[in-house]
Each structure stands twice: as structure tokens, then as C-alpha cells.
Amino acid sequence: MMFLSSEQNRQRRRANNMSADKTKVTIKKKLGCGAKCLKFLIFFFNFIFLIAGCAVLGVGVWIYIESTSIKAIMGSSLLLNSAYTLMVAGAIAILMAALGCCGAWKENKCLLMTYFIALMIIFFAELVGGIMAYAYRNDAKFTVKKSMQSTLKEAYGLEGNKGVTDTWDDTQRKFECCGVEGNTTDAYQLWLVSDWYVEQVGDPKEKVPSSCCKRNDDGDVINLQECQQLEPDFDNPDQVNTEGCFDSVYEFILDNSLVIGGVGVGIAFIQIFGMVFALCLFRQL
Q1: Degrees, nearest 5: CA angle 71-72-75
Q2: What range defines the domain where residue 224 resides?
Q3: CA end-to-end span of the chain
Q4: How many CB atoms lie within 10 A of CB 151?
């Protein structure tokens, strides 16, 4: 058995004391009042971030369900792409909230920096996406109108285009409209130059689909024959919807865009606070 000399014992005690002092300093630094407050704030904002992520995911699913009913006649995946974007953003927000909470709880600098960088990338991606969406809003309007005119004239009611036909019928019933744009006779005159009208057999031809016809409170067509033959006064038709569908459909898109924009601004606001608090806590660890 070997015995340590007194000098070796002193060196060993000194090393242990220094290690203990460092541990005390580290613990004191990690559990300081400022760090505790920052941890609490990070938990708080990430809890809000988590709720916001769930809300964004829910809004994305809702817009996806709503937009599928008009996508076939829009000829554009504008709303569907927005829905997919929101669902992905919601899922990412949930993951980011979990990452932020984990980094703060474990006081892990690597997790906190990863959280900060990820939030910053997402924030700038949202900023660029918002600017591009605003810049191309008029192009989207033109694309939707052109597609609605094209699908009505060249696809409605024809073999192999059941999806377009059903979508047009659903849209005209839902928004109580007929045709693409205009009022009185302008709204439904487009049907008279459509392939659907040209290829009809029999006489007289149906001048508008039954989905253009006005309905009672039970959802039944009031007078199908008068509606489809446009027998009432063209300037004051009693049985057919006279407003075009474009304005209603585009207003629907704008309403959903406002929801998307509002949610995006709210999340961006939360992200800024999350980044600031994460960086402050990182510097104190």
C-alpha cells in the first residue's frame, strides 16, 4: 500500500477545492435571477408558439378543405399551395416550440443556437414569401379569371371533365352566381358560346345549367324550365342568378388570404421575441 506525501495531499486538496469553486460559480451562473427569468419567458413564448402552430395547422387544413371545392375551375393551386404552406409552417412551429423549450430547460447552448438560427431562417422565408405574394396579387387575379372562363367554355359538361363540371355546379349553387363576371345578361351569356351548349342535342337547348337557377329555402330550384330557357325578362330575370361567380370566388380567396396574412404576422411577432430571448439566454450560459 502506497502512502501519499503531505505535499501530494495538499496538491490534491487544492485541486478539489478549485474544482468545487468552479462548480459553484457555474451553478450560480446558470441559476441566476436573469437566467431564470429568460427561461420562464422562453417557456411562455414557446407555449404561445405551440398554440399558434396548432392554430396554423388547423387553418391550413380548413383552407385545404375549402379550396378543393373551387380548385378545378381556378386552374391554379394558389389556395392549395397556401394551405400546404400553412400546414408545413404549423408543423415546423410545433417542432420549434419543442426545441426551444428543451434548449431552455436543459440550458443547452447548442440547442438554443439551433433554435435561434431556425427561427431566423423561417422568419426571413415568411418575409420573402409575403412580399412575393403581394407583388404578384394582380397576376393571380388575372390567372383565376382566365381559367374560370376557359373551363366554363371548353370543359364544363363534356366527357372526361366530371371534376370541372361538379366544381362549377357546386360553386354556382354555393355563391348563388352564374357564369364568370358581369351582371344581368352578361353573367350568363358566356354559357351560350360554351361547348356544353353547342354540343347539346334536342330542341330547345338548355341555355344555362340548373346550378344557375335560383332556389327556395329548401334548396330546390324554383322553376327549372323558366330558368334554363331564360324565359323571364332578360333585364330582370326572376329564376336565374345574374351575378357572375368571379367576384364571389375572388373575394373568397382574399378572405382566406387575410386569414393567412394575419396568422403570419402573429407568428412573426412571436418569433422575434423567441429569437431575442433565446439569444440573451445563450449569452448568459
Answers
A1: 80
A2: 145-247
A3: 44
A4: 22
Are 87 and 212 contained in the same domain?
no
Judge residue 271's burial from the number of C-beta atoms within 10 Å of its C-beta, 0-12 exposed, 13-18 middle, 19 or more buried: buried
CB 196 within 8 A of CB 91: no
Longest CA–CA span in the chain (Å) reads: 119
Q: Is residue 209 part of a domain?
A: yes
φ and ψ of 183, to 5 deg: -140, 175
116 domain-assigned: yes
Q: Please, are residues 270 and 49 in contact by the beta-carbon 8 Å criterion?
A: yes
**Do 172 and 113 reside in the same domain of the chain?**
no
Question: Do residue 130 and residue 200 come from a single domain?
Answer: no
Q: Which residues, at least 6 apart from 10, have a Cβ–Cβ distance to it below 8 Å?
A: none
Residue from 184, 181, 176, 180 nearest 235 by CA: 184
> Which pTM value belongs to this model?
0.59
**pLDDT by residue (tens digit) across 68-96?**
656 666 655 556 666 777 788 778 878 88
Map residue 213 onto helix, strand or coil.
strand
Total structural domains in the chain?
2
Place of cell 381556378: 74
Considering the domain architecture, whether residues 198 and 216 belong to the same structural domain is answered as yes
Cis peptide bond prior to 237, omega within 30° of 0: no
Q: Does any domain span residue 1?
A: no
Q: Are residues 62 and 89 in the same domain?
A: yes
Whether residue 27 is contained in a domain is answered as no
pLDDT for 89-133, tens place per residue?
Answer: 778 878 888 888 887 777 778 888 888 888 888 777 767 766 766
